[in-house]
Request: fold
Amino acid sequence: PECGARVSSDANFCPNCGESLNDDCQCDDDDDWYDDEEEDDDWCDDDEATKSVVILFTDSAALAGKYGVSEHDVTRILVNHINELQREGHNGYLLDASKYSLGGDDVTWMDYRDLIVYFMDDNDIDPSPKVSLFIIGGNDVIFQPAIKNPSFSPSPWGDNEYQETIYADFLYCFDEIDREFLDYNRARCNVSRLPLESGGMTSTIEDDIESFLNRSMSAVVSGLSISNAIMTTNRDWIPASREMSRNLPIISMNNSEGYVLDNMYVSPNIYADMDSEEGRMYSRDISDANMLVFNLHGACLPAQSGFYSNDLAFSINMLENTSASIFNTVACWGA
Reply:
């Protein structure tokens, strides 16, 4: 694929970017995974597979309550964005959970998943990993899926309530989760979220959501340029970090024992607000980069926002010093 990711020889789509790996659409006559009763409704139709579909998923009433505005103010911003997408040749939809009856106080994330399935079926949107589901709002707007952590064991440091459950939006992409093997080709959609803070907002909906969607639209029109990326890695995960960054335009640096290896900054020797020549170089490169990549620890405590090794390696305050358009991390708990 164009993204350069490694894929298995029998893959139909790239698990990294979703690109089709065959000239012909890979539909299997026995492939009735989505609806046994609609065998003629081929979800992998050639024409449909090439269309870009974006579903904005939120609850306008909940968002309006958070910002102290009317539901009309919320829907105006979202519909304007959908119209912009349509003008650029994309298929945009608004899925507003406030317009559906989901079960009152007994609603769970699975009710939201069922709503997604119903909405896509009702609008003739064929399931595909190329369908983009974009959730606006946190758990107090659209529930984040949660399942019991199969690997949980009590932590010697306490705070077990943050580890007993796995919260993951990708659960919206599948009907069932095979923990041994997740086939991205079988996803009904890809998913992302603009989480916002919990409770009432002190900022405005224009500064937050409208501004974010406008910047997103600019990226849709002109694309995102990545010419220099920065990778910061935990020293225990250097091999994985090499693999993560091998197809990225990582800036070229000389190795510096304990600080820089193979063009990657290495923590714990690299940390936030360090007062040294290496620290100044780290801050300068973060400022100049247009993509930041972190393979570091997250913290299970909500108050400890940031990326860690033995100590804090990157804090949210450091974002003020960068103009990077892409921020990528695999930190636990989402940091």
